[in-house]
Amino acid sequence: MSRRLLLLALTSAACFSDDPPQLTATVTSDDTSTSTTIGTTAVTPTTTTGDETTSTSTTGTTEPVVPTTSTGDTSTTDDTSTTGEPVVDPCMDKDPICPEGPSGAPGSGLEPLDRCNFALTRAPEWDNLGPLADALAETLPTRTIAELLTDLNNVAEPAPTVPGDVAALELAFRWDDEDFSKAWWVPQGLTGSADAYDDGRLEGRDVVLIGWWFAKELAMLSFDKGVRVSLVDFTDAPDLSLRHILLVEPVPGDPVDFKPVPIRAASIAWYGDTLYLADPTQGLRVFDMSRLLAVNPGVDKVGYDSKINDYYGGLYSYVAMQIGAYKPASDCAPRFSTVALDRSTSPPELVVGEFCDGVDACDGASDGRVFTWPIDPVTGRLPSLITWASFAAYTGESQIEGITRSQGTFTCRAAPRPATPARSTSSPPPAPASPTAGSTPPGP
């Protein structure tokens, strides 16, 4: 079985000016991956749009604050932000033209694209799921993500050694034997309190949030559990406590019900009360971290059981509800393989990367692109009904499994290219681990 380890790299706050300490990590397996810095972009309020430079519009305050969550998006028109301020973007007057492919050779670095070709729009899920989430929150007890810190029920174990040469490594841990043996749960994404909060801490605690997707065929179950996240408190390392939380989508019914999110991806980004999940074919799913539902963990099923009038969370005690989504506004649709958060910009920006292998994903292995979109620092959401990318480029890399940006520099983690020496970076971002079949009976 592949060894699945989580490597945590903490860098000094001095490396990031006045920003809080930044947390980056990677999930690794026995296979070797390549990490590389692929280029830089300006972190000033200007962005490249083809061969011209235009100012990037921001809305609301540009000082990061801890956002609050509401169940609906407050946008009302295409030219109004979530804070009520007018949004003026030159991309409004341009028709999208989808690029035909990179012109540079593989590994040649970033090739900028016209950002106006890549807009995200507020999806109907905000109107459809918001009322359902409200109804569930009125029916079931709710907890905030901070309250779960007093109800962690599992542990992780320190890892004395890690594969590869990871600079500035301060902490490494692995899952306990029970989680370690469950090959049907595949760790992929990582975010944490360093992303979510201005001071980098959740109620004074240092935590990470790990995303996993469910390999149904390995679990021998009749249903798909979808995606879970694990809240890990490493403040008192080497003592590490955690709890798993299932992500669910509300569905209408009498009473209102919920179902798993059955996608083979678990790349996540966390800001305040908002959790973003990259859905490769749909866009970005948005989950509410301020109202986690307390459910019955006693039976391995997900949703409402009319026979006993109770809700189940797949053997988990808490579920997080999807409350909205953002989807491409044109045919130039990105593949949402990975998502991360860049707090070094003002306002903060989501960083989305594409996995391309030229076989199952994209026409060519080096067709993968990277995009950034600003988020409103007050709401934690995209600032308007239609939000254009602040940056877009071909990466020149194949099989990108994770990409992030800080201080204008993108760092990606990619599967190795044949006959290409590995290039190292100080803090590689998340990458998925390959599952292997095990003999342990299915579990949560």
TrEMBL record:
Signal sequence extent: 1-17
Record keywords: Signal
Keyword Signal: yes
Region span, Disordered: 27-89, 406-444
Low complexity bias locations: 27-84, 414-426, 434-444
Protein's name in the database: Uncharacterized protein
Classification lineage: Bacteria, Pseudomonadati, Myxococcota, Polyangia, Nannocystales
